């Protein structure tokens, strides 16, 4: 279950590194469909190094990534290598143990990014090694932890969902105009990205202020406006029951929770109990401020529009910061042009209250 420093720095051949990058991509393709289980990706290489199988975790009760990739590889898996983002499980849950499936397929080597952190599913590497399989743990671990496994790992380590705060603002940080109008701050490409972000989450959260002002639908839709088959839980935090029965969020296009949670931590506990592992916090500034003050934002996705408004609500409300030295700080993960707008993805490095995060990946802690 644990890794030695030697394992963490283990170098692997280039074709296995490419397979690991592909496994991370595969895991990301099933985000929003696997919770409470991890979104794992797996690639099977034949003995000659050819990619012969690819897989990602199916929804709960369905096969795990390794099993999907092995099924695709068939007999070509014999003597080959399995490259997986998470250590194969050794226990029988709703599906059989993946370690046994790898042994049955005749896999000779297993390359793993993240060692299994739970006692329940641990022991896969030991089981494989005991059967003579060459197992390498901790390969490109940080990249896998920051990626598709971040939500699940936050759940294991902190018993709460991973929170992505998404906000669209003008160059002067306004999320709406002085008259309250906010459609549309950003262009169609940025709005399409919001739907992609929603699809990768288990719940989308707004405060009652946003629900009352904008009357958002909060569903995942394609560019033509068609509502997707799988929808995240829509959540409005409305402690004073101000949401009218006519609110669009209360239609039957997707499940909706109207929460009375007093604090962000209470809300996250409520969502965690419903198997939510990834939350998209869509605002507005008051609720975002409450999450930031509580140190409960793991990742921020800011869509900046090249516009100025000069007045209107700022992208975040009061943070209780007395001076520049206490500013909440972030590290920039990446910057992406989105049509005429720009997307900046960030991780908090220091939150209010002075706490400092190491690694800046929002998935702190060892394995
Ligand atoms: N451009 C964007 O990305 C974007 C996104 C969202 C919103 N907006 C804009 O933001 C404006 C609305 O701002 P807002 O700040 O009123 O919206 P908000 O943050 O969505 O809602 C604020 C309300 O949330 C409730 N709330 C629930 N839990 C809370 C907690 N733990 N701490 C604080 N409040 C909590 C409070 O009402 P109760 O006490 O009644 O529960 C509070 O009044 C609109 O103009 C909207 O267009 C823009």
From TrEMBL:
Residues 14-136 form the CMP/dCMP-type deaminase domain. Residues 352-367 have a biased composition (Gly residues). It catalyses: 2,5-diamino-6-hydroxy-4-(5-phosphoribosylamino)-pyrimidine + H2O + H(+) = 5-amino-6-(5-phospho-D-ribosylamino)uracil + NH4(+); 5-amino-6-(5-phospho-D-ribitylamino)uracil + NADP(+) = 5-amino-6-(5-phospho-D-ribosylamino)uracil + NADPH + H(+). Binds 1 zinc ion. Its EC number is 3.5.4.26, 1.1.1.193. It holds the Pfam family RibD_C. Gene3D superfamilies: Cytidine Deaminase, domain 2, Dihydrofolate Reductase, subunit A. Pathway: Cofactor biosynthesis; riboflavin biosynthesis; 5-amino-6-(D-ribitylamino)uracil from GTP: step 2/4; Cofactor biosynthesis; riboflavin biosynthesis; 5-amino-6-(D-ribitylamino)uracil from GTP: step 3/4. Its cofactor is Zn(2+). Keywords: Hydrolase, Metal-binding, Multifunctional enzyme, NADP, Oxidoreductase, Riboflavin biosynthesis, Zinc. It comes from the Bacteria. Residues 1-20, 347-367 are annotated as: Disordered. InterPro entries: APOBEC/CMP_deaminase_Zn-bd, CMP_dCMP_dom, Cytidine_deaminase-like, DHFR-like_dom_sf, Eubact_RibD, RibDG_C, Riboflavin_Biosynth_HTPR. Transmembrane segments: none annotated. One of its GO terms (molecular function) is 5-amino-6-(5-phosphoribosylamino)uracil reductase activity. Converts 2,5-diamino-6-(ribosylamino)-4(3h)-pyrimidinone 5'-phosphate into 5-amino-6-(ribosylamino)-2,4(1h,3h)-pyrimidinedione 5'-phosphate. PANTHER family: 2,5-DIAMINO-6-RIBOSYLAMINO-4(3H)-PYRIMIDINONE 5'-PHOSPHATE REDUCTASE (PTHR38011:SF7), DIHYDROFOLATE REDUCTASE FAMILY PROTEIN (AFU_ORTHOLOGUE AFUA_8G06820) (PTHR38011). In the C-terminal section; belongs to the HTP reductase family. In the N-terminal section; belongs to the cytidine and deoxycytidylate deaminase family. NCBIfam families: eubact_ribD. This is Riboflavin biosynthesis protein RibD. It comes from Blastococcus carthaginiensis.
């Amino acid at each position: 279950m644990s890794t030695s420093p030697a394992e963490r720095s283990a170098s692997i051949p280039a074709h296995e590194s490419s397979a690991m990058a592909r496994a991370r991509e595969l895991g990301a393709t099933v985000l929003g469909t696997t919770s409470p289980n991890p979104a794992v990706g797996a690639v099977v290489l034949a003995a000659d190094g050819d990619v012969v199988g690819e897989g990602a975790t199916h929804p709960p009760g369905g096969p795990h990534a390794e099993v999907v990739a092995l099924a695709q590889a068939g007999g070509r898996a014999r003597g080959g290598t399995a490259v997986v983002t998470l250590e194969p499980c050794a226990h029988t849950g709703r599906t059989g143990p993946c370690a046994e499936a790898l042994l049955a397929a005749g896999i000779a080597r297993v390359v793993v990014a993240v060692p299994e952190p739970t006692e329940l599913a641990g022991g896969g590497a030991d089981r494989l090694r005991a059967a003579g399989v060459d197992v390498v743990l901790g390969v490109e671990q940080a990249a896998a932890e920051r990626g598709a496994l971040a939500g699940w790992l936050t759940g294991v380590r902190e018993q709460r969902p991973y929170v992505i705060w998404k906000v669209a603002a003008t160059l002067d940080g306004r999320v709406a105009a002085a008259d309250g109008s906010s459609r549309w701050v950003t262009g169609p490409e940025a709005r399409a990205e919001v739907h992609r972000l929603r699809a990768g989450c288990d719940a989308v959260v707004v405060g009652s202020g946003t629900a009352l002002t904008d009357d958002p639908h909060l569903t995942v839709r394609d560019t033509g406006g068609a509502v997707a088959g799988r929808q995240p839980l829509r959540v409005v935090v409305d402690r004073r029951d101000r949401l009218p029965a006519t609110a669009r969020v209360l239609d039957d296009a997707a499940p909706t929770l109207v929460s009375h949670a007093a604090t962000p931590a209470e809300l996250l506990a409520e969502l965690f109990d419903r198997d939510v592992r990834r939350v998209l916090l869509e605002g507005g500034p008051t609720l975002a401020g409450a999450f930031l003050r509580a140190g409960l934002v793991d990742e921020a996705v800011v869509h900046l529009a090249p516009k100025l408004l000069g007045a209107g609500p700022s992208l975040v409300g009061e943070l209780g910061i007395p001076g520049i030295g206490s500013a909440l700080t972030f590290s920039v993960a990446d910057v992406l042009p989105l049509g005429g707008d720009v997307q900046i993805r960030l991780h908090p490095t220091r939150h209010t209250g002075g706490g400092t995060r190491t690694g800046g990946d929002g998935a702190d802690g060892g394995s």
